[in-house]
Amino acid sequence: MSFALTIPELLENIFLHADQVSVLRSLFVCKQWYIIGRSVLWRNVEGPKHFRGLVLLLGRLLGFDDDETDTTQVAFVRYPQAVAWSRFEKHAHCVRVMSLKDLQKYREVFHVMAEAKPSFALFPNLRTLKYTATHEDIQHCIHFLHSNVKRFIFSTTGPPNYPPQKKQLYYDHLRFLVDAIPRMSAIQHIEFIIDSSSNDITIDRFVGVIKHIPTLESVVLPRYTLTASILAEFASLPRLSILQTQSGAEGSWTASDPFEPDLPPDSFPALKKLTLSATPLNVARFLSQHPVAARLHTLALDLDEVEPEGLPTLLHTVASRCTALCAISIERRGSNSFELNWDSIIPPLTLNSFAPILRRAALTDIKIEHEGLFRFTPAELNDFAGRIPHVERLVLHGLPTSHLSEIRLPDLLVFARRCPALTTLGLVIDASKVDDLPSVNLPEFKSLRCLDLGGSYIGSDTDSVSFFLARICPLGCKLETWENQEWRPVIDVVPLLVKMRVFHSGHPTEKT
């Protein structure tokens, strides 16, 4: 055997990049390969079947069935002996990451393991725990919490149709879990996602527990739960750099919270990423009053109230106060009625609305979802694209989609010419008029990997749209829409047309 294949670091790197079957075969080569291969095989435990493999080291199981709908409880045939625990611990020490769900059938197993385990931590080297729970197995999560866990990601959905007694049991289990979180005394990242019906009952208790953990660097809460009072609770954490809510999830939000957090001047000394849920004017007021705005690198906003001048005011405040900002995301949705005169409620966003933030050279990620329209003249659109040659992600989606956008298909050429750094472009366009599409000297996007056309309208001539997009999209660019079946022929054929174009253009260095 080559000496190089006896170097532990090299062997571990090889096994990490090999498939599981190859690593299993390598276990029989020699003792050194067995020890290193075992540590790689059990480093990540994903799902109940993988977890069952660990439990089987303690002894045979009775009542197991691969059918996930089967509610039969799993139990040990005999009480685990010392030899079995020794065998289990050799493998359990290898585990670094666990992703678990559907463990409700293991109640008896966990009861025995908790009663007979020789040490407090079943998996002492566990660093990351991802646990997706039902109302029946929340309490099992407790067995994996200890001082070496650095990342904890927990999610569950409540029992909305359950009788009061079972609901109360669910809430009791959640509180029990929250009270056990201090076991992870060195936790750095914690993500706690629960159903909206449990927010009022659990979130305040959860925040009251974790605000005393000084090692916290990142916290993710359910959507719309980061109120002014909760924001103030985290203000003194010295290492907290990320304070966000779950993006794109369901949730309920009301304007009852005036969002006027009372923060001392030295609050959030390390904060870089922040999510806020409030009205545009309230967010603008907060950013203008607190020094933390100048340190933010990423700002995500959930804005749910219609204010005619709110968004332009907010963008102006962001430009003047958030001097270190690299990424901004704004999701703003009001009424879903398509019969309202949206222009009379919310003025369309124009170049003047964006002008303040476009002066920030460090801003490379811009995402704005707005109920109204984005209104640009051709000259303004050209000016707008010329101001953002450094932007890598630009998403401007207008809602509701029943309004025809004033941005046309040929307007994509402006971004292809003037925005060489774009990797993601999201626009709502009107692709129904294809008679005047240019066909010569079309520029190609240089770095684009995703073209998100959202709720764009398309006419019956999908072939012309497909040929046009295939001329300007680079190889590997993904085309996306909001589940609009009328775009399906375009999405299916454009990648093939791009490959044909690259092949016939004679670029052998590009992969086809």
UniProtKB/TrEMBL annotation:
<dbReference type="InterPro" id="IPR032675">
    <property type="entry name" value="LRR_dom_sf"/>
</dbReference>
<protein>
    <recommendedName>
        <fullName>F-box domain-containing protein</fullName>
    </recommendedName>
</protein>
<dbReference type="InterPro" id="IPR036047">
    <property type="entry name" value="F-box-like_dom_sf"/>
</dbReference>
